[in-house]
Amino acid sequence: MFAAMFAATTSGIRPDGEDAFIPSSVCKQGDVSQSLAPDLTQAVPFSSGNPRIDETRGIMYLFREDASSSQNLPVDRKPLVCVLAVPNHMTYADFCRFCGSFVQHMAEMRIVRNDGMEDQYSVLIRFNDQSSTDSFFKHFRGKRFSSLEVDACQVLYTLDVEYTGSIEHAQGTLASSTEQVNCAVCLERLDQDDGAILTTICNHSFHCSCISKWADSSCPVCRYCQQQPDKSTCSVCGTSENLWICVICGSVGCGRYKDGHAIRHWKETQHCFSLELETQRVWDYVGDNYVHRLIQSKTDGKLVELNFHGAHADDTCGSCNCGDSGIDEALFNSKFEAILMEYNDLLTSQLENQRKYFESLLQEAKEEDEREISKAVQKAVNLRLQKLKTKLNKHIEEKRFVEDINENLLKNQETWKAKIQQIEEREQAAVRLKDEKIQKLEEQLQNLICSIEAQNAVDDNPPSQVSNDIKNVKITLSGSSSSRSK
Questions:
Q1: List of residues 6+ apart from 160 with CB closer than 8 A
Q2: Could you give the CA distance from residue 201 to residue 218 in angstroms, rounded to a whole number?
Q3: CA 127, CA 129: separation in Å to the nearest integer?
Q4: Choosing a second label site near 231 at 20 to 30 A (CA), which of 102, 124, 323, 335?
Q5: Which CATH class is domain 243-276+281-311?
Q6: pLDDT tens-place string over residues 426-458
Q7: The RING-type domain covers which part of the protein (predicted)?
Q8: Which uninterrupted H or E stretch holds 27?
C-alpha cells in the first residue's frame, strides 16, 4: 500500500549501457518475426516500467510447449528462457530463493508483465551457458512454486526478445538507461562477473544477492510495487480518480480538484491527515501542506526535498522579494488593502455559500429521513396487516373445517343411536323368542318324561294296576293342564 508510483525507465543493463535482452541484430519491429517459424514459436506481448512514468513494450518469441519437451529440446534454443505466470504474491527474494543454486549460473533476470494478467508476472532469464539453461528447464518444468500453490512453473525456451517502443507518461527529462550503472543497495557496479543482475518490473537493476535481502515486492529505488492494490473508489460519488484516504478512520474520498469529498470529510470530522493513494503522500489540512520533508519526483521517482514555499508560490515571481522599487508605498498599501478587502469579501461569501449549502444538505437529509421513516412505517404497517389478514383467514378456514367435522359427528351420532336402538330391540326380541322356545321345550320334555314313566309302569305292573295308574296319570295330567290353562 505504501509503494510509491514513481519509477525511472532504466532496464536490465550491462556496464557499457547495452541492454542484454535486446539482441544486436534487432533494429526494428518485424525483423525477428519474419525469420522465425510460426509453427514452432509463439509471440507473447509484454510490458515493463512504471505505467505513470514510462512504459516499455515488446514481444517475446517463445518456443511452443509441444516443440520443447524434456526429451526433445529445440535445436535453435539459446541460453534464454522465460518463466510464465509467476504468482504476483511472490516477491523478488522469493523467486530468487525458488531458483536456488541456479542463480549463480544466471547472467540476468528481468521481470515483465503479460498483457491481461494483472495477478501474475513473467521472468526472462539469461544463463551463462547452454548446459545450465537445459538443467534449469528440466528441473523446474512443471514444478509447483510451493506446496501450497496449485499452479506449476511454466518454463519455455525463448528464441528472441523484440522491443517495440516506449511510452512516456511523465513530463520532463526521464532518466536514461545509462544512468544506473551501480546497484542501489550495495553501490557497486552492475558487473555480470559479480553475479546475476535482476531488473525489477519498474526497470531498475540490482544484484540478485542484494535484492534477495529485500523483504517486500517494492523497488528499493522508487518504491514501485509489483503487487498493485485493488482499485478504490470514493465512498460518496464512486469516482476512482484523485483519491485520498483518511489515516484516522480509513474513509476514502476524492480530492478538492474533483468533488472535494475528502476535504468535506475533514470539515465534518476534523480528521486532518489524509493519504493520497496515487502518490502515497500525506496532507495536513490544518497546516495546508504535506507532512513530508522529502517526496518522490514525478520525473524519475527519486526522493527530493519538498519546497513548501515554492509549492505555494505564484507562477510569476514565486517566493522572491522582487518588485518595482518605483512604486509608491502609499499606492502599494492601498493596493494591498484592496486585495485584502476583496479576499475577505470573497472568503465571507464562500463561507456563507458553504453555510447555506450545508444547511440545505441538513434540510434535505432531514426530509429524506422523514420520508424514509414514513415509508418504513407504512411498509411495516402494511406488512403487519397483511400477516394478520393471512392469519385471520387461516383461522377462519380452520373454524369452518372444525364446524364441518362437528356437524358430521352430530349426524353420525344420531345415526349410531338409531342403529344401537334397533340392535337392542332385536336383542330383546331374540331373548323373548329364546325364552318361549325354552319353555316349550321344557313342557315337551316334561311330557316325554311322563310318557316314559308310564310306559315303564305298564311293563312292570299287572294290567289292573296299570289301568288305575293310567287313570291317575290322566287325572294328574288333566289337573296339570287345567292349572296351566288357568
A1: 23, 26, 32, 36, 61, 78
A2: 9
A3: 6
A4: 124
A5: alpha beta
A6: 999 999 999 999 999 998 999 899 989 888 888
A7: 183-223
A8: none
The CB-side HSE value for 322 (13 A sphere, CA atoms) comes to: 7
Pick the closest to residue 454 from 480, 477, 481, 483 (CA basis). 477
Polymer length of the chain: 486
The conformation of residue 135, written as its DSSP 8-state character, comes to: H
User: Which one, of 11, 335, 390, lies nearest residue 200 by Cα?
Assistant: 11
Strand positions, DSSP E, 277-421: 282-284, 289-290, 294-296, 303-305
| Structural domain spans, the chain | 31-211, 243-276+281-311, 382-434
* Rounded Cα distance, 42 and 427, in Å: 108
Q: Judging by beta carbons within 10 Å of its beta carbon (0-12, 13-18, 19+), is residue 347 exposed, middle or buried?
A: exposed
Cell numbers that stand for 425 in this block: 330391540
Q: Report d(CA 110, CA 161) in Å as an integer.
A: 12
**CATH topology (fold) of 31-211:** Alpha-Beta Plaits (3.30.70)
pTM of the model: 0.46
Query: For 428, left (φ over 0), alpha (ψ -120 to 50), or beta?
Result: alpha
d(CA 399, CA 476): 79
* pLDDT, tens only, 156-201: 888 888 888 776 654 433 333 445 678 878 888 877 566 788 888 8
* Three cell numbers, residue 86: 509467476
Query: Do 31-211 and 243-276+281-311 fold alike per CATH?
Result: no
Give the residue with greater pLDDT, 338 vs 486: 338
- Is residue 2 within 8 A of residue 280, CB to CB? The reply is yes
